[in-house]
Amino acid sequence: MTGIIELIAQTTGCCASTSAGLNETEAEAISADFQVFAHPVRVQLLTLLTNSTDDVCVCDLEAAVAVKQPTVSYHLKLLREAGLVSCERRGPWAYYRVERERLASLKARINRHLDTWNR
């Protein structure tokens, strides 16, 4: 019987102590980073803006996606809040541009996190 007890004591089993690898704050931050790209309209808008060398009028952004103006405005607001795009008013129109440094920073942060999954 002693041999069985020793064997059980030597195995870690399914209840071994593990670490999540991220604290709650870090997990929330990376989750927020991923959520920026969690909707196809935001991905389309961001792609249009990153492919443009000039500022893009909101009317052109609205025409480029298959959703109505309020939905475009909502997704542009989320991209602005994430710091990925900025906007400038010119008369009645708003012109958008991608914030390339912020986008590069976000990309680097996501890549660093994804690299930890490959270990």
UniProtKB/TrEMBL annotation:
<dbReference type="InterPro" id="IPR036390">
    <property type="entry name" value="WH_DNA-bd_sf"/>
</dbReference>
<dbReference type="InterPro" id="IPR001845">
    <property type="entry name" value="HTH_ArsR_DNA-bd_dom"/>
</dbReference>
<feature type="domain" description="HTH arsR-type">
    <location>
        <begin position="22"/>
        <end position="118"/>
    </location>
</feature>
<dbReference type="InterPro" id="IPR036388">
    <property type="entry name" value="WH-like_DNA-bd_sf"/>
</dbReference>
<dbReference type="Pfam" id="PF01022">
    <property type="entry name" value="HTH_5"/>
</dbReference>
<keyword id="KW-0238">DNA-binding</keyword>
<dbReference type="InterPro" id="IPR011991">
    <property type="entry name" value="ArsR-like_HTH"/>
</dbReference>
<protein>
    <recommendedName>
        <fullName>HTH arsR-type domain-containing protein</fullName>
    </recommendedName>
</protein>
<keyword id="KW-0805">Transcription regulation</keyword>
<dbReference type="InterPro" id="IPR051081">
    <property type="entry name" value="HTH_MetalResp_TranReg"/>
</dbReference>
<keyword id="KW-0804">Transcription</keyword>
